[in-house]
Design a protein that fits this description.
Length: 219
């Protein structure tokens, strides 16, 4: 049953992409659900995707973002860090690097219902749209939070595994790797870059569905 649902979703999603992109009518609007019911995505079907959680850093992150080339990793950004880094935000927008919203620890959302809305509002103020992806800092998603994200058409994205540096992991089909760059838990930029250049990473959409979705550029 689950395989049938995923197959049906893939067909619908593919059809949606073809309709939206037919005739060169412009970029895709980056708001859609990737699941048929509230669910946390942690693995796809092929290749590997790299995601990086960012809540700390200034010059080293700016330099790294400046030198990034496609395919870009998906960056999960902390709202407070956004407020401290307007020049890096400008770079992210100019290069059209995919970004998602990085939240607090999952348990906080059960105690602070407005926390998600505040984070989304902050994200919108910088990027002019809702985030396509959301991840809690500890990758724990309470049921009510997952349901609320589904209502908002924001995809809850965890990861297959977290990497903290050291030995480059062997590639597993469909995996979503996450790396943390925080003040207290931090994988250095040079290590992130060593991982990024160690293989041909794909976009999250490509890993999940085999469909490459370009996010809307912001002038």
């Amino acid at each position: 049953m689950k395989k049938f649902m995923l197959l049906s979703l893939f067909v619908l999603f593919t059809a949606w992409v073809l309709v939206q992109s037919a005739g060169g009518k412009g970029p895709l609007v980056p708001v859609f659900r990737m699941t048929a019911e509230p669910q946390v995505l942690v693995q796809g079907s092929r290749g590997a995707a790299l995601t990086v959680d960012v809540s700390f850093g200034d010059s080293e992150i700016r330099e790294w973002v400046s030198g990034l080339s496609e395919p870009y990793p998906l960056l999960f950004i902390d709202p407070d860090w956004l407020a401290r880094s307007p020049d890096i935000v400008k770079l992210l927008v100019e290069k059209n690097i995919p970004v998602g919203l990085l939240g607090a620890a999952g348990e906080r959302y059960a105690k602070e219902p407005k926390l998600l809305d505040e984070g989304i509002e902050a994200f919108e103020s910088y990027f002019g749209r809702k985030p396509l992806y959301f991840r809690t800092a500890d990758e724990r998603f309470p049921e009510k939070l997952t349901a609320r994200l589904f209502e908002l058409e924001i995809n809850a994205l965890g990861s297959t595994r977290r990497w903290e540096g050291g030995k480059i992991p062997k590639e597993k089909a469909g995996e979503i790797l996450s790396v943390q760059h925080h003040r207290d838990v931090r994988t250095e930029v040079k290590e992130i870059e060593r991982l990024r250049t160690s293989r041909e990473f794909m976009t999250v959409e490509d890993v999940l569905f085999g469909v490459d979705v370009r996010q809307k550029s912001i002038p």
